[in-house]
Design a protein that fits this description.
CATH topology: Jelly Rolls
InterPro entries: Cupin_2, RmlC-like_jellyroll, RmlC_Cupin_sf
CATH architecture: Sandwich
Protein name: Cupin type-2 domain-containing protein
Number of strands: 9
Pfam families: Cupin_2
Radius of gyration: 15 Å
Order of helices and strands: HEEEEEEEEE
CATH superfamily: Jelly Rolls
Keywords: Signal
Domain Cupin type-2: 66-132
CATH class: Mainly Beta
Strand order of the largest sheet: 1-2-8-4-7
Length: 154
């Protein structure tokens, strides 16, 4: 593996360890739609299987900047692996599957656990856009996120 790719992969993983949705998921029949959300990919690379012990099967690493406009929502979704984000601007209201919201403010770090049981939604109830820098370390062949119906409590 070329040194530059190893360095890039190591830097992306280091950023993920320090930092946490866009939504290129499959559409569930009862999924809740996103609105007012945009994303820009800042960097991406693939980590081959066996290169890093904590990613034994390899993974796709992508860093994205997510913008959620005032009144915007990501819709309910989940990720197939943990993601890491830094709230650069604004206040994100973030209910999980139990519908109890957690509020993240500028400077906060978000770690979202992966898996279907960890559905969540990000909503901007504030007056300024929410800006997130998000690191995804996704299994090969999986989307960055998967749309999901809202939980019964929503």
């Amino acid at each position: 593996m070329p040194r530059i790719l190893r360095t890039s992969a190591a830097a992306a993983i280091a950023a993920a360890a320090a930092l946490t949705p866009m939504f290129i998921g499959t559409t569930a029949a009862d999924a809740t739609p996103s609105s007012g959300v945009s994303a820009v990919t800042l960097a991406h690379t693939d980590i081959p299987a066996g290169l890093l012990p904590f990613v034994p099967k390899g993974a796709h690493v992508e860093v994205r900047q997510i913008k959620i406009e005032p009144g915007g929502t990501t819709g309910w979704h989940y990720h197939d692996a943990d993601i890491y984000a830094l709230v650069r601007q604004g206040t994100l209201t973030h209910p999980y599957a139990n519908c109890k919201p957690v509020v993240y403010k500028t400077g906060d770090i978000i770690v979202e656990p992966g898996g279907k049981s960890n559905v969540h939604e990000g909503t901007n109830l504030g007056k300024v856009p929410v800006i997130l820098d998000v690191v995804y370390v996704t299994p090969f062949g999986k989307p960055l996120s998967e749309d999901s119906p809202a939980p019964a409590c929503a």
